């Protein structure tokens, strides 16, 4: 779709106008769509980060759970094995030992206990013997501080081997109680009242458990790192369509309504792309309709003024004849003839202004710049309009040269001064100066200030509207009602700005700012 | 809106932490309860039924502890110094198990020094020397023993000591019903029940029943 | 601005008023403009088409051609070229604003000036007088200088109003001749386009500078050896034009 190709071909105007209307709505605001790149591509909690975090979390939880469960099972199995080994070997050891009854304490007993302790599996243990009031051990203390009363009670109450894991001062111990029986006959045993205890530090088991834990952690961490890869891939697969969508949206925003997104796959993102494309198509359609309607309206205005112009050309040529001969007619006819003559003139001005406006609307207005002495140009304008009397004051420093369209600048100045004289009151001051505001190029500032009551505040926003009447009571002004609108368009064509205001000193002031070397707003 | 969202998120985090806590807390080695692991250990006790007798004394925790006593008093320090054969020859009695009367008399004589050294004691009263013990031949798995004691004066531990000593003297398994009678005619009947086979039930009660 | 029809008669000794051929397809414009001009004493012949106008040219022998650009059949630009093939008759185009491109084409084809429709008769009359005005009094400091001036291969006769190059006479349209005479009257002096509009065309200061540019291009095509690198009519970018230096 070639936007605006029709807009350039106003009736009768050639297609070789110097600028293309396709250049965008307004170069002054052209930086709008490019605000995006300022933002950093990686946001703190952007989609990518969140996806990665989610992946990491899932991986961490699963790895952690697996590791923990594995660890627990392995640890339990390991401890089980250690305990069973210990209990079994303890029983085997003590069964190979002989004791007399009653047991006799002292060196002999301790020697026997030390002998048992030495053969401990998987590690040496400390063996305690309790019989009657005898307390003996293979270690230094005859009574263990680790063995709990519960274990003692269980050993005494039940003729069963039993063990208990105890953690004392952060050190885990395995305590085994073994009630001793002896054979009273080949097939019956009798509790002897002797209970042997074994106490074993589980430090090695602790080390093993720590190693297991370390292994689980070392396995989990690389697992997490590996989980990053599918995370990144998933993020990419989601983010790429999102990025495409963003690019397309920005492209649409900058006016390329024919932007479409390739639809891939059949997931939600593809649905989104499809919806986007449908919306874009509808938008393009509506915009095209709007443009066509606008184009028709513009063409209609242009055609109407064109068609009005031809009869007007004939009429205007003969108004002189009417004016001359009116004197010889009777009074009523003479008044009628003069009325027709005068209104024909106004009609001609109105049609000319309408033509000018429709050419601006069609972006067919051309800027024919020339380097001129601005003060001289303004003086010529005032002189040509016979505004050289004391109604006009000028502050025009010599030597300011600017590149502008003299004919259009003449219209701007003439419209502003004429407007000031009609709606404000004399004296009207026209002043000129230049200003340099880095980094923008130097500008030419022209001010037209009147001495009237100023512009009513509620009128200010509409002062450049077409056919806007600041004073509702005034049915028709001497101008066409398009003067300020045409002025605005001419200033914009120069790439400049115009604004109206009421300075503190009273009156109204119109300020025109044009780049000193205007190459055309669209050129 | 935002606050509820934050709160919901906080709750989710809390839930995750709660779920993870047992897993994380299971690190290291924990304490356990007392866990049974197999039966008791049996050891060699040098019991020779031919001239050894089993006497039951009271241990400091209130239970009964068997003590092996050889019938050869000159043997002094037990069985190590006595060859089974020589003991047989030196015996005043005929070969065979130590008579129950002898065992009961030994029990009534109380713990010796080595027994006392191990903290063993007896609940039986000291008896006058020369008291007689009569053991009737067993009939129907029941052994009746007449004692030179007043049974009423004895507590349950004392009765249990007597019952077990008589039972194991009579029967290597101790599986026999023992009836005790005194001069007054009072009698008590019971079993020893110290063997681990009965461990499921309350052990060591002599089950004295007054007739 | 008061027209003075007697002026030309006295000074030039020519027929009282210029004869005007008007080629215009729209009857009301044709009649209105004709009426206004006749009223001012012009002898006017009107033609509805380019072909009819060209046919009337030889017979009517006008002093000036008023030519509408938008004509059915043969259009104004084509008529303009046909006339320029063997005549330096002053030509003023009638055009409508908005037809900017056509204005340029018309000017390139040899028209001397243009009028934007609709226009009052007094405006048309003023343009006609300006195009027909003789230039013998123009230029500063003319007194005491010879009538015939030679610049390189160019010979300008200010009395006979002829220009020749290497002895061969050149056919210059009135606006081209006036521009050359004005520029060469003060060699090496720079004239801005606005100044040339005022002095050569009697336009306002702010009129269409393309008039000057188009005329300069046509003039260069006739007097320069190479139009791309002019010797006689030189451009000073940003300021305007000057004659020489050679």
From TrEMBL, chain B:
Residues 74-97, 114-142, 185-211 are annotated as: Disordered. Keywords: Signal. Residues 1-25 form the signal peptide. The keyword Glycoprotein does not apply. The keyword Signal applies. This is GerMN domain-containing protein. It comes from the Bacteria.
């Amino acid at each position: 779709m070639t936007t605006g190709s029709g807009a350039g071909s106003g009736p009768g105007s050639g297609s070789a106008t110097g600028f293309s209307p396709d250049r965008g709505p307004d170069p002054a605001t052209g930086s709008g769509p490019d605000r995006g790149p300022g933002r950093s591509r990686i946001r703190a909690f952007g989609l990518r980060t969140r996806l990665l975090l989610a992946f990491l979390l899932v991986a961490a939880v699963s790895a952690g759970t697996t590791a923990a469960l594995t660890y627990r099972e392995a640890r339990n199995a390991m401890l089980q094995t250690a305990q069973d080994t210990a209990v079994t070997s303890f029983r085997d050891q003590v069964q190979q030992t002989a004791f007399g009854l009653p047991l006799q304490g002292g060196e002999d007993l301790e020697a026997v206990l030390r002998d048992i302790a030495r053969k401990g599996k998987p590690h040496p243990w400390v063996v305690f013997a309790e019989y009657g009031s005898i307390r003996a051990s293979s270690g230094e203390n005859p009574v263990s501080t680790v063995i709990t009363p519960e274990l003692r009670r269980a050993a005494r109450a039940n003729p069963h081997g039993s063990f208990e894991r105890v953690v004392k001062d952060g050190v885990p111990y395995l305590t085994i109680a073994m009630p001793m029986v002896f054979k009273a006959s080949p097939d019956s045993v009798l509790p002897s009242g002797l209970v042997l205890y074994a106490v074993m530090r589980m430090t090695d088991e602790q080390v093993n458990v720590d190693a297991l834990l370390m292994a689980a952690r070392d396995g989990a961490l690389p697992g997490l790192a590996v989980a990053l890869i599918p995370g990144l891939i998933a993020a990419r697969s989601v983010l790429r369509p999102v990025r495409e969508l963003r690019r397309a949206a920005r492209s649409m925003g900058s006016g390329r309504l024919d932007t479409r997104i390739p639809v891939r796959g059949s997931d939600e993102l593809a649905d989104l792309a499809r919806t986007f494309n449908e919306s874009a198509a509808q938008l393009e359609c509506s915009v095209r309709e709007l443009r066509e309607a606008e184009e028709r309206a513009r063409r209609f205005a242009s055609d109407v003024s064109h068609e009005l112009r031809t009869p007007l050309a004939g009429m205007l040529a003969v108004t002189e004849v009417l004016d001359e001969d009116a004197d010889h007619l009777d009074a009523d006819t003479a008044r009628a003839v003069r009325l027709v003559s005068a209104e024909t003139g106004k009609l001609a001005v109105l049609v000319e202004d309408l033509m000018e406006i429709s050419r601006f609307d069609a972006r067919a207005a051309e800027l024919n710049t020339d380097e001129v002495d601005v003060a001289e140009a303004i003086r010529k304008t005032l002189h040509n309009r016979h505004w050289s009397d004391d109604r006009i004051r000028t502050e025009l420093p010599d030597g300011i040269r600017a590149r502008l369209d003299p004919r259009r600048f003449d219209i701007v100045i003439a419209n502003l001064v004429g407007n000031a004289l009609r709606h404000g009151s004399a004296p009207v001051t026209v002043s000129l100066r230049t200003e340099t505001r880095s980094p923008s190029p130097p500008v030419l500032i022209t001010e037209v200030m009147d001495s009237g009551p100023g512009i009513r505040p509620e009128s200010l926003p509409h002062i450049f509207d077409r056919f806007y009447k600041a004073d509702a009571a005034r049915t028709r002004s001497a101008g066409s009602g398009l003067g300020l609108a045409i002025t605005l368009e001419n200033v914009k064509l120069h790439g400049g700005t115009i604004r109206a205001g009421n300075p503190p000193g009273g009156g109204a002031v119109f300020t025109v700012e044009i780049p000193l070397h205007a190459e055309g707003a669209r050129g | 809106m935002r606050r509820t969202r934050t709160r919901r998120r906080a709750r989710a985090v809390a839930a995750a932490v709660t779920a993870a806590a047992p897993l994380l807390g299971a690190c290291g080695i924990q304490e356990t309860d007392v866990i049974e692991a197999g039966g008791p250990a049996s050891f060699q006790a040098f019991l020779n039924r031919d001239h050894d007798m089993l006497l039951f004394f009271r241990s400091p925790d209130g239970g009964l502890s068997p003590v092996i006593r050889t019938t050869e008093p000159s043997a002094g320090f037990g069985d190590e110094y006595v060859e089974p054969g020589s003991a047989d020859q030196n015996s005043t009695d005929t070969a065979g198990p130590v008579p129950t009367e002898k065992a009961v008399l030994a029990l009534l004589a109380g713990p010796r020094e080595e027994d006392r050294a191990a903290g063993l004691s007896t609940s039986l009263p000291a008896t006058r020397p020369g008291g007689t013990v009569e053991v009737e031949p067993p009939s129907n798995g029941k052994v009746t023993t007449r004692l030179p004691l007043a049974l009423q004066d004895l507590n349950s531990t004392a009765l249990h000591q007597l019952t077990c000593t008589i039972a194991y003297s009579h029967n290597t398994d101790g599986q026999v019903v023992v009836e005790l009678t005194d001069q007054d005619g009072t009698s008590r009947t019971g079993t020893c029940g110290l063997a681990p086979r009965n461990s499921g039930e309350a052990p060591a009660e002599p089950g004295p029943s007054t007739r | 601005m008061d027209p003075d029809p007697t002026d030309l008669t006295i000074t030039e000794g020519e027929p009282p008023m210029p004869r005007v051929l008007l080629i215009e397809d729209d009857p009301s414009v044709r009649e209105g403009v004709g009426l206004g001009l006749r009223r001012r004493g012009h002898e006017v012949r009107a033609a509805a088409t380019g072909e009819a106008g060209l046919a009337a040219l030889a017979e009517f022998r006008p002093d000036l051609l008023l030519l509408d650009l938008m004509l059915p059949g043969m259009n104004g630009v084509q008529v303009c070229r046909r006339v320029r093939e063997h005549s330096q008759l002053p030509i003023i185009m009638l055009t409508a604003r908005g037809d900017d491109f056509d204005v340029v084409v018309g000017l390139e084809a040899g028209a001397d000036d243009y009028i934007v429709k609709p226009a009052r008769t007094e405006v048309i009359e003023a343009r006609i007088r300006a195009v027909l005005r003789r230039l013998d009094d123009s230029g500063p400091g003319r007194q005491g200088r010879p009538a015939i001036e030679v610049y390189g291969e160019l010979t300008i006769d200010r009395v006979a109003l002829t220009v020749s190059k290497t002895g061969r006479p050149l056919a210059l349209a009135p606006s081209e001749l006036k521009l050359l005479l004005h520029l060469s009257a003060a060699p090496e002096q720079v004239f801005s386009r606005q100044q040339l509009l005022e002095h050569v065309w009697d336009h306002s200061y702010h009129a269409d500078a393309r008039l000057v540019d188009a005329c300069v291009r046509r003039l260069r095509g006739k007097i320069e050896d190479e139009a791309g690198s002019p010797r006689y009519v030189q451009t000073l970018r940003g300021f305007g034009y000057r004659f020489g230096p050679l």
